[in-house]
Structures are given as C-alpha cells and as structure tokens.
Design a protein that fits this description.
Blueprint (H helix, E strand, L loop, with lengths): L5 E3 L7 H10 L4 E3 L4 H6 L2 E3 L3 H11 L4 E5 L3 H20 L7 H10 L5 H4 L2 H18 L7 E4 L6 H8 L47
C-alpha cells in the first residue's frame, strides 16, 4: 500500500513525540510541527501543530493519506496539558511577537476561549479534549480504514500501528513506543539527531502559506 502522508492528529501531550520517534525508527521522514512548505513537501509523517487543528483541510489537500489519533487517560493528560499551556500562555496571547502565528492560531482555536482562568480548570480542558475527539470521530466515521486510534500506554498499541501501516513486525527496529518528554519537558525532539528528521522551520523562519 502506498501512503501519501501520515498525519498524527492527537492533541499536545498525547505522546505525539513518542509516535514521531517510532516513525523515524520505521524509516519515515518525520516532522514534529511543520511551519514551512518544505516540511510539508518532504515529510511523510507530520504531527502536532498545525496538524491536530488542520487535519480536515490536510485530508482534502493530500488525498489518500492516513491519520493517527492519539488518546490519553484524562488523569494523566490533564495535569500535563495544564502545565504546558500555563508555560506557553504569555507567548500565545502576545500581539507583539511570541510564538509563530500558525501555532498561536491552533492553540487558540482548539482551547477556545484561551484564558488563564480557563486553562486552570480541569473541566474546561476536558471539554476541549472531548470536543476535538468528537470532531475527529465524526469526520472519519465512514472511513475506518483511514483512521487509527491508539493510546501508546497500551501494550498492543505498537502492533496496531504496524498493522495499520502494513508493516511486518520483523521490519520494525523496536517492539514498542519509547517514553520521552517526561516530567513536563517538551524539547526531546529538538535535541534529536536523525537524518530522517524534517525541521519544522527554515532556520527559524516560517512560511505564511504551508500547503
């Protein structure tokens, strides 16, 4: 089976980096975040921003692609996403700089309305998670072959990934997902040196139009 693109559409802190690392191990050119046309052209696998927000547009732009939705137990995801959003909040809301506009748009859209008060509330964050999940499941409800849903903490998840991609277990270099970005740290990907890794920017520069 020829796969045009593989999009990982789980929200932040659902193990997107672990899945990207596994994809590198399976021989796929992979971008964790993509903010240039080069990244979209070169990468076979793309995750995080703007993927989790723009998956419907990407589906139209890259027909015959596959999508991987990542789930995570609320008791684990909530404290992790809360810590991340609180750390990012100032740069997400700045009008004079901060994060790039693609990242800002995605976070402000998925976690809307994005306020200090809201991101401190588990109920609000869980509603954002459930809304995104429901949208994903509704969009792919008649296309079960195009969407894989996994929780990487489950022992069967890696074999499910291989089956979804039509990869024989003997071709895989690992037998599971490596747990990284532990304790709220989110920079393991930046430190990774791999020839299949596709940079998200062009030496810090982004494109206004991505795909």
């Amino acid at each position: 089976m020829t796969i045009y693109k593989i999009f990982i559409i789980g929200l932040p802190r659902t193990a997107t980096t672990s899945v990207c690392l596994a994809m590198l191990g399976l021989g796929f050119k992979t971008a964790h975040n993509a903010y240039t046309q080069h990244a979209f052209n070169e990468a076979q696998v793309l995750a995080d921003t703007p993927i989790f927000c723009d998956y419907q547009h990407l589906d139209c732009h890259y027909p015959e692609s596959k999508f991987i939705y990542l789930t995570r137990e609320a008791s684990v995801w909530l404290p992790s996403i809360k810590q991340l959003l609180q750390r990012m909040m100032t740069n997400l809301q700045r009008n004079d700089g901060g994060f790039n506009p693609h990242l800002k748009r995605c976070y402000n859209e998925v976690f809307s309305p994005l306020t200090i008060e809201n991101i401190a509330q588990d109920e609000f964050l869980l509603q954002c998670y459930q809304r995104h999940q429901q949208q994903v499941f509704h969009y792919f409800k008649h296309r079960p072959l195009d969407l894989l849903t996994i929780d990487v903490s489950k022992p069967e998840s890696y074999q499910q990934l291989l089956a979804f991609l039509d990869i024989e277990p003997s071709q895989a270099k690992a037998n599971g997902f490596e747990i990284i970005n532990i304790g709220g740290k989110v920079k393991a990907w930046q430190a990774l040196n791999n020839t299949l890794k596709i940079e998200s920017t062009n030496k810090g520069r982004i494109d206004k139009i991505l795909y």
